[in-house]
Amino acid sequence: MNAHPLPSSTTTPQPGQPVPEEAGENRLALAAIVDALLALIIGFALSQRVFHATDGVAKFWVTVLACILAISFLNHVVGTLLLRGSFAKLLFGMRVVRWKNGRRPRFWQTIARWLFGFVLIGLQYLLEGESVGQACGLRTVRRRDLIRPTTRR
Questions:
Q1: Which residue has the higher pLDDT, 110 or 117?
Q2: Which of 10, 64, 119, 127 could form a Cys-Cys staple with 47, CB 3.0–4.6 A?
């Protein structure tokens, strides 16, 4: 099997190359649901390893919440810094880039985006049309658009 390396434009865009458009809302929503389920399931499973049954209900919920937030942080911040996307974004062929130049996100941008996602979940019905697909100077794009830059006509 002949494996060809991806063009360098997938990791660092060339100067003057346009940043791809934001990924579609359906793809973003599906990725958000998968990421949330992943954090809930793995966070709950992890909490069962950390929590001792004799500690009481209050400590149980604190442990579950802490584990879910830790998994979410690893997925959305560390995963985005290292792999340019969370688990679900990578699964559905998306990458997170800086919206100004298409380069890798910065540490503080990924943290701000992660926190913004929690706020957005609470205000989703009030903001209709706003998404975390483009927030905090970052944009979620389709991976294939990074490989083949779009041309505007």
A1: 110
A2: 64
- How is the beta sheet containing 138-142 ordered, strand by strand? 94-98, 138-142, 134-135
Cα dihedral 42, 79, 116, 19 sign:
negative
Token readout for 66 is: 């802490």
- Interval 26-67: pLDDT, tens: 888 888 889 999 999 999 999 888 877 677 888 888 989 999
Please give the Cα distance from 72 to 63 (Å, whole number). 14
Q: What is the DSSP letter of 84?
A: S
Q: Which residues contact 35 (CB under 8 A, 6 or more apart)?
A: 72, 75, 76, 86, 87, 88, 89
Name 42's Cβ contacts closer than 8 Å, sequence gap at least 6: 71
CA distance linking residue 115 with residue 108, whole number of Å: 11
- Distance, CA of 152 to CA of 9 (rounded, Å): 17
Residues in the chain: 153
Residue with tokens 């083949």: 148
